[in-house]
Amino acid sequence: MNSGGKRIAIIGGGIAGLTAGYYLNRRHDVALFEKSARIGGNAYSHRTSKGEILDIAVAASGKAGYKNFYALLDELGISTQPCNSYMSFHNLDTRKGLYLTLSAKGVRYQGLELLSAANLRSLAKLFLGLQRARRRLNAGMLKNVTLGRCLQDLPEFSGDTEVFFLSALCLLSSMEAHEVLAAPAEFFLNKLKTHFDVISPKAMYSVRCVRDGTRRYVNALSARYRGKIRFNAVIRTVERSSGGATVMMADGSNHHFDAVVFACNPDQALALLAQPTRMEKKLLGAWRYKDGRVVVHRDHSSFPPRPLIEAYTFLYTMRDGKMRTSVNGALWHEPQAPKDCDYISAQHPNYPIRGDLIELDTILRTPIFDFASCATIPDLPQLNNGRTTFFCGSYFGYGLHEDAVASARSVAERFGCV
Ligand SMILES: Cc1cc2nc3c(=O)[nH]c(=O)nc-3n(C[C@H](O)[C@H](O)[C@H](O)COP(=O)(O)OP(=O)(O)OC[C@H]3O[C@@H](n4cnc5c(N)ncnc54)[C@H](O)[C@@H]3O)c2cc1C
Question: Which of 349, 368, 387 delimits the end of a domain?
Fold first, then answer.
């Protein structure tokens, strides 16, 4: 630690906490508390029973919207490469769908169906509908309007077009279709404006991932303070005083710091604060998180033939006008996966999975972007105007790596580390 450096605790070892640690460690003495046995949070590398190390959640990022994240990777000397970002949409009831496998393999397995008039019409309607939605956004017509209402008013978003659009938004948010429909239209349309390259033909070259997966940057970010990470940490409360803050552990030990950075989720941060201020209660208390089920498995029985299972395959049902979908990542599309890899990571699975083919059944937390939580986003930086406690995480923006990194970076700026 430099002279004049501070003792800083970071609570949470997801990408926000690790990035905060990486920058703050340049001038200060950091200690990171992680409640689980691993770091990375939703950047989750899993070693399968066959010995493959695969990312079961976060895997990809678009060049256009991830400026801080790519700058950080550059600093770490980590290169990225284009990755498969094709999508397949498979109706579980009719067992038919649209498989955007734009290759000879795609044509071989679905014939000219790929370029059928109906499919081309659905895609054209999607892009026309999006343009009209954007015009309404720019004209200020979508204030206090849910995405569901916005789509109802745009006839382009019917039938397959609605399925494709909602599926892509489920992928981009980790929320389920009914939650996406209840979210503010402005939130999702602004997110698509920023990340325009991830659901357009540009995705083919713009969506990238790191060879060897997320563990590459998870390890690089933490390399310099690895010995100061406390795993399986059970914090009881964090109490502020005039001289800093004390992290009180469930085992009765207390650790005093000059400052504490909460890089866990906002509801978790609020639960840890001994005497939250009114502003903290208002801003952090507005957030609901979802315990999203993620199952890694090898049961392909509900899927189209393997060549049509794309990096993102949506298995959906449309019953009584309500869509339910699961987002399925075919893990053999990850650059580090061996050729014979047959694992699928299913988020919110809506189909039967044979028990003996399940590798991992877990919960990953994800923020629900609704009117109450979205309204706090512009004000969240105000939480960091004090001198003792600071906050960062993907909820400071659109819920993505870019937002986690940008918010951690701005906390580090306050300590003169960037
Ligand atoms: C299935 C899925 C797929 C995703 N795919 C992508 C993608 O491809 N690209 C992308 O950019 N984003 C993706 N995301 C979004 C992803 O969540 C964010 O990009 C980002 O990783 C969130 O980082 P974070 O540090 O803010 O929070 P988290 O990753 O949630 O990390 C919070 C950490 O705090 C720890 N913690 C909580 N409470 C305590 C406590 N009391 N004490 C100590 N530690 C605590 C947790 O254990 C966790 O490690 C995906 C999310 C999900 C769920």
Answer: 368
Q: Provide mean pLDDT across the span 21-37.
A: 98
Cβ of 35 closer than 6 Å to ligand 1, yes or no, is: yes
pLDDT digits (tens, 9 = 90+) for 114-162: 778 888 898 899 999 999 999 999 999 999 999 999 999 999 999 899 9
Q: Are 388 and 339 found together in one domain?
A: no
404 lines ligand 1 (CB under 6 A): yes
Contact 351/302 with Cβ under 8 angstroms? Answer: yes
Q: Does 26 share its domain with 115? A: no
> How many domains is the chain built from?
2
294 lines ligand 1 (CB under 6 A): yes
394 Cα nearest atom in ligand 1: 26
Question: What pLDDT digit, counting tens, does each position of 205-224 carry?
Answer: 788 999 899 999 999 999 99
Residues 404 and 281 in one domain: yes
pTM for this structure? Answer: 0.96
Ligand 1: which of 42, 176, 229, 255 to mutate, judged by most atoms within 8 Å of the beta carbon?
Answer: 42
Q: How far is the CA of 43 from the centre of ligand 1 (A)?
A: 7
